[in-house]
Amino acid sequence: MKLYNTLTKKKEEFIPIEEGKVRMYVCGPTVYNYIHIGNARPVIVFDTVRRYLEYKGYEVNFVSNFTDVDDKIIKKAIEEGVTATTISERYIEECHKDMEGLNIKPATTNPKATEEIDGMIEMISTLIKKGHAYEKNGTVYFRTRSFKDYGKLSKKNIDDLEAGIRIAVVDEKEDPMDFVLWKPKKEGEPYWTSPWSDGRPGWHIECSVMSKKYLGEQIDIHAGGEDLVFPHHENEIAQSEACNGKEFAKYWMHNAFLNIDNKKMSKSDGNFFTVREISEEYPLQVLRFFMLSAHYRSPLNFSRDLMEASQNGLERILTAVYNLEHLLDSAASKELSEAEKNLIGEIESLNAKFDAAMEDDFNTADAIAAIFEIVKAANSNLTSDNSKEVIQTLLDKVLKLTDILGIQAKKEEELLAEEVEQLIEDRQNARKSKDFAKADEIRNLLLEKGIILEDTREGVRWKRA
Ligand code: AMP
Ligand code: ZN
Question: What ligand is nearest to the CA atom of residue 258?
Fold first, then answer.
């Protein structure tokens, strides 16, 4: 399996540090608002990478953080007259809901910056002891020039970088390239006590600390959007390697940006959509399918036309699955004919095509094309005269490959309102005759179908979850 490593600028064979295991860290969102569809790109892409690794048999330890202390969170808290924790907890919860809609597998660990302050103080202390950091008036800076490999990820030269910096009139830093590890609080800001000041950590230190705590000093894959290469990931490397004296991450993966109207999607320009807004127009599966229809390292332009095309494409797969399930009901079990054996052979080679696409730096666009070919083969070859075995083989194949991409290909058969009413009536009758097991069974069935019951004084009310 090959993946593109930003560190070497090459596609490289993936060889994990420990056989059969993958330690993976993905920089997560800053939680001061609903996540936007740009933030959803790394979430979807790296969940798909994880799913493919698991399909290959690796045990993946997947860590993704929430940045829950930050200027933007504090600003929003002040605007609303609530605490920063109220804001971050609210949007972490909303983010989890969006991720569920996007069918993102829960991370092994989702650490929060505010719960890891002790670890940050410890790492900063070590960096000071080793001469890689220094304190000035309560602020601690990383001594960037003390780390010889600075710039190795972003391929930037420290002297060129420095030449581009406008030096502030009063600068307490030893060098303009030094960056903050700890800063004193301002009035009204959340703070923690440290040996240097009552204050809070800089942004970069949190990922170095959480990655080390949950995955160890050396990890296999560190990932995020391409805007994080510099300075965030470059600074993470400097901190971690200066502290631990070991290579931090073996492979660095970065997704390209999601644009709108061919312009970079940005909150400040107002040209962005939240995942929540999109969920009101399309099932979130469509958004996931749309994101995977392009290679993760290519910029992707969001448009209604492309979303419609994705919806149609996805619908084609769902319909094929639905039809195959119905064929199964009427087909008989019998020995495979020659034509059926050939068809299974064709499907196996399309599966190999899918794998080859994914092995080539996660080319999900080509992987989806292979699924479409399987769907086409199913649609044009199978009827209820075919053997149950061949229909089952094709059905399993489509379900397995779509699942690797995190696409749920089974159509949810939604209950109609009158069916719900009927079940509620059945449940009431069961209760009247004290058949509580049956009443519970009906309640659970409804719950599975996304129907929530509320027993009120006026009777039973229901709503869709
Ligand atoms: P932030 O909350 O800004 O720290 O971003 C969280 C993640 O979303 C990071 O990995 C960013 O690189 C990524 N990201 C932000 N905007 C976009 C975008 N328009 N396209 C793709 N990735 C993005
Ligand atoms: Zn990070």
Answer: 1
Ligand 1 pocket: which of 6, 34, 41, 271 to mutate (most atoms within 8 A of CB): 41
- Whether the CB-CB separation of 215 and 63 falls below 8 Å is answered with yes
pLDDT, tens digit (0-9, with 9 covering 90-100), for 21-50: 999 999 999 999 999 999 999 999 999 999
Which atom of ligand 1 is closest in space to residue 272's alpha carbon?
19
Structure tokens at 242: 């200066």
Residue 347 phi/psi, 5-degree rounding, is -65, -40
Q: How many alpha carbons lie under 13 Å from residue 193 in its C-beta half-sphere?
A: 0
Q: Is the pLDDT of residue 317 over 90?
A: yes
Identify the residue whose C-alpha is closest to ligand 1 atom 11.
Answer: 225
Give the domain ranges of the chain.
2-255, 276-404, 417-464
pTM of the model: 0.89
Reported CATH class of domain 2-255: alpha beta
Query: 276-404: which CATH number, 3.30.590.10, 1.20.1250.20, 3.40.50.300, 1.10.730.10?
Result: 1.10.730.10
Strands 258-260 and 300-302: parallel
Tokens of 347: 């499907």
